[in-house]
Amino acid sequence: MMAILDFLKDILSEPAFLMGIIACVGLIALKSPAHKVMTGTLGPILGYLMLSAGAGVIVANLEPLSKMIETGFHITGVVPNNEAVTSVAQELLGVETMSILVTGLIFNLLIARFTRFKYIFLTGHHSFFMACLLSAVLGALDFKGMTMILVGGFILGAWSAISPAIGQKYTLKATDGDEIAMGHFGSLGYYLSAWIGSIVGKESQSTEDIQVSEKWNFLRNTTISTALIMVVFYIIAAIAAGPKFVETLSGGQNPFIFAILCGLKFAVGVAVVYAGVRMILADLIPAFEGVSSKLIPNAVPAVDCAVFFPYAPTAVIIGFACSFVGGVIGMLILGMVGGVLIIPGMVPHFFCGATAGIFGNATGGRRGAMVGSFVNGLFLAFLPALLLPVLGNLGFSNTTFGDFDFGILGIVLGRVGEFAHAGGIYGIVAILLAILIIPSFMSKSDEAINNHE
Hints:
73% of the residues lie in helices and 2% in strands. It has a three-stranded parallel β-sheet, with helices on both faces. It is built from 14 helices and three strands. The chain is an all-alpha fold.
């Protein structure tokens, strides 16, 4: 039984296989010929592996930047990192996490089939992270065994369908009406950024329409502009940290050569992510028509935040920079009020900040991208600090979940459970159930809720 659970956990927590399975099922439902089923299944798998490889290059090169900033500017505290806190959770709550993950996916498919929340969450590693968070918070509230698995699985499945729906009108703006949804648990931060953009960005020019004179036209090549900006970032951090410390990271390589190479490799990682995204969308969306027309009518794929990067590449860089500034200011505010110091994690600020920039730009142009991602950065400091106390045993591991939805869900579940015990958690389950069911009675439409501008 454990071997089967392990196998299922590995399959379901790997988005490449999840996308491949969905594409394969869709193509079979469309009665496509065998060679098209094979190529259409491999396309999203290879595309996602390419996206993951690019993201891996980005993460690997953000790590030394983070260390140089900590050392150069004398900062010590907690660095939010989903992967780190998940590895701790696996040692304490491995079976519970796996079981919640599998149950959550089943609930997500049932919800998509029988309600108007027809969003199928395809970002398996984020489902895995959320399953870890739920097992930690529910475990700290004394939930055990099958009760923990069913409650955690339902909350995971429900939020996997509800969170893409909440801001789908913004997602359609960000993607020019493409039939995809946000499948990433930083979603509330992106929607907040889009809402802020709609308020502050009236008549503000899109980041993608910024006029550049002929001699600076090379900056419109996103790979080159990303490389130049990041090289400047790395050199400043290397100067602040000092050559002796940088050499401990570079293995003896000249500190400035190391900094320049890290900046250039970061840009290569971004370019690989873009190439992988194009490959995913080329095959996944046509194959998804089979799922949508035959198995789950009007289903909408909810995909990783990096899939949105090619829609507004300039907003990606603006969003990252402004989110990071927000994170630094948030850290300083926490320091002044005597809170836990949350050091800005480069990974959440890049991926979540960039996506917040894209959504802010979609509704409010440049001003929306800058202000929306800045506010996102502030929350990426405050939410992890408020989440730490509700994580039970995991709260002592000197790391915490970094993204917006983890913070909101963890804090709400933890605080409600603390004051109202198990009854409070069942109350939240009842509210989620009502949210899922009521729209079906209010309208006879079978279309995915909110999937229109």
